[in-house]
């Protein structure tokens, strides 16, 4: 864990513990997947440096996170049987919320369908349900619509178009939960769309297609000659064989000039 290592890639994924003259302990670097190891090493260092007398050994490695106590690999089956939710939704809720999924499903509304019975989706192509928005507001401190779109469901990163379609329903649910005014709902909706547009490339394809290259007549003539030089058969397009042939010709010319 030498901060002066030349291997910066290795350094970035490891962590270092620095002890100050006044026994200030600082840990830097590391990664999410080693947070337990980092915590244990830091506390062990504090015990050693500050001559602490802990009443028990470190509990970090076996400490269960919230939602893990009642979780099992087949827990989603019980969710389906208990609440009548879609299998894909049950698998998603089980993997993300653990045993807290049962509390979340109690917030889910009836779908009005024969199956699934409960669990209205925010978007038909993704397993996120409306009850997750309610749960995020009540239990996970979500206060902006963007918290749901990008930080709870991650829908903005998975499919920006689907995220755009889900925003109105998310804003509606959060507005009801948080008592938003119509003006506040409008602001949240616009803020989300602005994020999706500027940060996630919502309308990037349309913007690219609307761009018109500004070429002079000489530029157009030059590009046309280059195109025709490669498209020897005048097909109107360039095939892989055209490129191979062109590259071979280019190589032979280059070699002849070198010789």
Tell me what the structure shows.
The chain has 259 residues and is mostly helical. Helix content is 56%, strand content 4%. The protein contains 13 helices and 2 strands; from the N terminus they run αββαααααααααααα. The chain has a two-stranded antiparallel sheet. The radius of gyration is 29 Å and the shape is extended. Mean pLDDT is 89; it is low at 251-259.
- Radius of gyration, rounded? 29 Å
- Low-confidence segments, given as residue ranges, are 251-259
Distance between the termini: 54 Å
What share of residues are in beta strands?
Answer: under 5%
Sheet/helix structural class: mainly alpha
Order of SSEs, N→C? HEEHHHHHHHHHHHH
Number of DSSP helices?
13
Q: Which sheet architecture does the biggest sheet show?
A: 2 strands, antiparallel
* Mean pLDDT across all amino acids: 89
Overall form: extended
Portion of residues in helices? Answer: 55-70%
Largest sheet: spatial strand order: 1-2
Number of strands: 2
Task: Summarize the helices and strands and which ones pair or pack.
Layout: H1 8-13, E1 15-19, E2 25-29, H2 35-49, H3 75-83, H4 87-97, H5 101-105, H6 130-139, H7 145-152, H8 155-158, H9 160-178, H10 182-198, H11 204-210, H12 217-230, H13 240-258
Antiparallel strand pairs: 1-2
Helix pairs in contact: 3-4, 6-9, 9-10
Brief rundown of the structure:
This protein is mainly alpha-helical.
């Amino acid at each position: 864990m030498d901060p002066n290592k030349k291997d910066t890639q290795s350094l970035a994924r490891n962590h270092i513990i620095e002890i100050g003259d006044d026994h200030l302990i600082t840990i830097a670097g590391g990664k999410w997947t080693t947070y337990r190891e980092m915590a244990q090493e830091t506390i062990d260092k504090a015990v050693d440096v500050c001559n602490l007398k802990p009443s028990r050994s470190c509990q970090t490695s076996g400490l269960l996170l919230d939602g893990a106590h009642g979780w099992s690999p087949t827990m989603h089956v019980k969710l389906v049987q208990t609440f009548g939710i879609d299998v894909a939704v049950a698998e998603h809720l089980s993997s993300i919320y653990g045993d807290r999924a049962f509390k979340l499903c109690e917030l889910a509304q009836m779908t009005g369908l024969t199956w699934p019975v409960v669990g209205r989706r925010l978007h038909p192509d993704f397993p996120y349900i409306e009850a997750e928005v309610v749960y995020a507001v009540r239990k996970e401190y979500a206060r902006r619509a963007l918290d749901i779109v990008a930080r709870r469901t991650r829908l903005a990163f998975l499919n920006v178009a689907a995220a755009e379609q889900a925003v109105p329903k998310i804003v509606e649910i959060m507005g009801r939960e948080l008592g938003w005014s119509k003006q506040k709902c409008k602001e949240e909706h616009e803020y989300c769309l602005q994020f999706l547009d500027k940060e996630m490339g919502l309308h990037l394809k349309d913007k690219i297609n609307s761009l018109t290259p500004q070429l002079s007549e000489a530029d157009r003539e030059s590009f046309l000659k280059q195109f025709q030089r490669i498209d020897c058969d005048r097909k109107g397009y360039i095939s892989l064989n055209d490129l191979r042939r062109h590259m071979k010709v280019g190589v032979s010319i280059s070699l002849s000039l070198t010789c």
